[in-house]
Specification:
The protein is α/β, with parallel strands linked by helices. Helices cover about 55% and strands about 10% of the residues. It has a domain of about 140 residues: Collagenase ColT, N-terminal domain (Glutaredoxin, 3-Layer(aba) Sandwich), CATH 3.40.30.160. It has a five-stranded mixed β-sheet. Strand 4 and strand 5 form a beta hairpin.
Length: about 375
């Protein structure tokens, strides 16, 4: 009797596992297929509609890119286009493919305005200062970052989002791992190099690097792991793009472009599977971050690095605040110029002469004399 019960229990456990396994695999597969958090997928691009621009926006046509931004930022937009030209050429060289074409970039003042400029059915995530819509060839940027309200580095932010669009072009929309997509965007834009170096150093010396297979199953969403995930992804992409492997990297993109699965193309292009490449990359990390601490004791060197990183952060914060103040002044000057250019009497209904306070409806009995209101006693 006991044996029969035990057998039935084993069958029950086997049945539960059989039912649970496909669901878990499907969840892992779905997580692995998700794009980076700042890349929006529009299922029906032809049906997507963009809201009209605000009346105080202007459009700068620049051949391969159209820039739409507040008129008061015209000078900044012109400089941004020059920087984008150089970055576009670099992407074409790194990818071994023709440069991207036909991109529209909309720059909003705030995250809220950025949401109002997005496709109606695909708003940007609330935590992002930039988002790419590769299928629409659209990039949205905000002059203020959510939560912190600092001014992001527009050059880096635009480079990051343009990389997402360019990669989608390079692989003709075929799937690549999220760590590859996000790592490539971070590597190409050169964001926060000091922070990424420190994160990699800590993870290497602490022997808690995240395996690429872990990132394949699901990219971390928050906490310290997400910093490790971004830093590792960017550095592994750098490893794949070393000068000696530049032709291999271009071949990788070409093979994915014709529909060959990413893992297979990686092995074909580099002559090694992802596990071996990851092992070689970890060995390189050990050489980069393992020898210097033994020679210096680690502490003094990191104090210097931390000091440089803090100084860079403070400088960046000050520059961001200065940018916001400059943009505010430019907007105020433009508003004043527009107001001064209006014809006499145009748009001045209800404005009192001689800079007096405009007339208002009194809440107590008053009388008007020589343009002023006096309370009756």
């Amino acid at each position: 009797m006991e044996r029969c019960r035990f057998v039935r229990f084993l069958r029950f456990v086997a049945a539960v596992l059989a039912l649970a396994w496909p669901a878990r695999s499907l969840a892992e597969e779905t997580a692995a297929d998700l794009p980076p958090r700042d890349v929006s997928v529009v299922v029906q691009p032809d049906a997507a509609k963009l809201p009209p621009l605000p009346p105080d926006f202007e459009r700068l046509e620049h051949g391969w890119m159209t820039l739409e931004l507040p008129s008061s930022l015209d000078d900044r937009g012109t400089a941004l286009l020059r920087e984008a030209d150089a970055f576009r050429s670099r992407l074409a060289e790194d990818f071994g493919q023709p440069a991207i074409q036909g991109v529209v970039v909309r720059i909003a003042r705030t995250p809220e305005q950025m949401a109002s400029l997005a496709p109606e059915t695909a708003p940007p995530p609330p935590y992002a200062a930039g988002v790419a819509y590769p299928s629409l060839r659209l990039v949205l940027l905000a002059l203020q970052a959510p939560q912190t309200w600092d001014a992001p580095d527009l050059t880096e932010l635009l480079a990051h989002e343009l990389t997402h669009v360019a990669l989608t072009d390079a692989v003709a929309g075929h799937h690549v791992p999220r760590w590859f997509d996000e790592g490539l965007a971070i590597h190409e834009s050169g964001e926060v190099p000091w922070a990424r170096t420190k994160t990699l150093w800590d993870a290497t010396l602490g022997k808690h690097l995240l395996p690429l297979s872990y990132l394949d199953r699901g990219f971390p969403a928050d906490g310290y792991e997400v910093n490790e995930a971004y830093a590792e992804s960017a550095d592994f992409v750098r490893f794949l793009m070393r000068d000696t492997d530049r032709a291999r990297f271009g071949a990788l993109l070409q093979r994915v472009r014709v529909g060959i699965p990413f893992d297979r193309t990686l092995e074909d292009a580099y002559g090694a599977d992802v596990r071996k490449l990851e092992y070689e990359w970890r060995e390189e990390l050990g050489r980069r971050f393992g020898v210097i601490p033994m020679l210096t004791g680690g502490g003094l060197l990191w104090v210097a690095i931390a000091g440089l990183a803090a100084a860079a952060w403070i400088k960046k914060r000050r520059r961001a605040k200065a940018k916001l103040a400059q943009w505010a002044r430019e907007e105020a000057e433009m508003d004043a110029a527009l107001a001064a250019s209006r014809a006499p009497g145009e748009g001045t209904v209800g404005v009192a002469p001689n800079d007096d306070v405009p007339p208002r409806m009194p809440s107590v009995p008053v009388v008007e004399h020589d343009g002023r209101w006096h309370t009756l006693h």
